[in-house]
Write a structure and sequence with these properties.
Order of helices and strands: HEEHHHHHEEEEHEEHEEH
Strand content: 15-25%
Number of strands: 10
Oligomer: single chain
Helix content: 40-55%
Distance between the termini: 125 Å
Number of domains: 3
Number of helices: 9
Structural class: alpha+beta
Shape: elongated
């Protein structure tokens, strides 16, 4: 049997549409070429991302859009090559698509939101987000859902529509260095300058706090409370995702330094004045 005869071998035939070995080989060839093209595009964009720097993930968003587009075109070509008219198929399924559209409205919204996120690049892998009090780091952005890791190292799968419709704080959007603060109250007997020096010394000794240029820690006297003089120590850190651990370590350091320098952290207290005592 000649090779041409093998290619013309009919696998099955339905309503005049015949699927031969040639069609099957052609479909496999299209899928293989598509996979190779997507692989090389990913390789090229990955190299470009390495040159751009560790915080530049625009290339991944471009790759996601290109990948979905190329595979969609490839699947349409495969359907067309096996003898199915795509235009007739779409036109005949219009009513079905409308019904599915109403049933899967939320899913379509997630797909559109995914395209918007990848195109606008406001949220990208590695960003630290705060949503409804939950702080999480973006691990992966897909076309319908995104994966984030919480501070408890729990992976959450979030529909993309929530990332575009809800109010989101992106701690990493403009810059990686984010400012935080710790509030502390001391006794009215304490010298404010001594308190300021101790707080600055504790902040400057922590390894996760930036200590250069305009990002150095600083202290403010924020209020005169009922029982304490209130201070706030402000600092910048690049580790926004694990900043609660940094805050905890800094509080331990401040507590020990206050004890060493005799600075008192007062308890809430009230003075009661009795004008007269009732007669017995």
């Amino acid at each position: 049997m000649k090779f041409s005869q093998i290619l013309e071998t009919v696998i099955f035939s339905v309503d005049g549409n015949t699927l031969t070995v040639y069609h099957l080989v052609l479909v496999l060839l299209i899928l293989t070429i598509t996979w190779v093209i997507v692989f090389f595009i990913k390789l090229i964009l990955r190299r470009a991302a390495i040159k751009a720097g560790p915080h530049d993930s625009r290339h991944m968003g471009i790759f996601q859009l290109l990948k979905y587009f190329i595979w969609t075109v490839s699947i349409v070509l495969c359907i067309n090559k096996i003898g199915v008219d795509v235009t007739i198929l779409v036109a005949g399924s219009a009513a079905l698509f409308v019904g599915i559209g109403f049933g899967l409205q939320g899913t379509f919204q997630d797909f559109v939101s995914g395209i918007i996120i990848l195109a606008e690049h406001n949220i990208k892998p590695g960003d630290v987000l705060e949503m409804d009090g939950l702080v999480a780091k973006v691990r992966e952005i897909g076309l319908r859902t995104s994966k984030v890791d919480t501070r408890d190292d729990i992976t959450m799968i979030i529909p993309n529509s929530k990332l575009t419709t809800n109010n989101i704080i992106n701690w990493s959007h403009s810059q990686r260095e984010t400012r935080f603060k710790i509030d502390v109250g001391v006794s009215y007997k304490s010298n404010p300058e001594d308190v300021k020096s101790v707080l600055l010394e504790c902040a400057m000794q922590h390894p996760n706090i930036i200590k250069k240029g305009q990002r150095e820690p600083f202290v403010r006297l924020t209020d005169f409370g009922n029982s304490s003089v209130d201070f706030a120590v402000f600092f910048f850190s690049e580790n926004a995702f694990r900043v609660e651990q940094t805050k905890s370590e800094l509080r331990f350091s401040i507590f020990e330094a206050f004890r060493k320098h005799g600075i008192e952290i007062p308890f809430p207290q009230q003075d009661v004045y009795i004008k007269s005592m009732p007669k017995q």
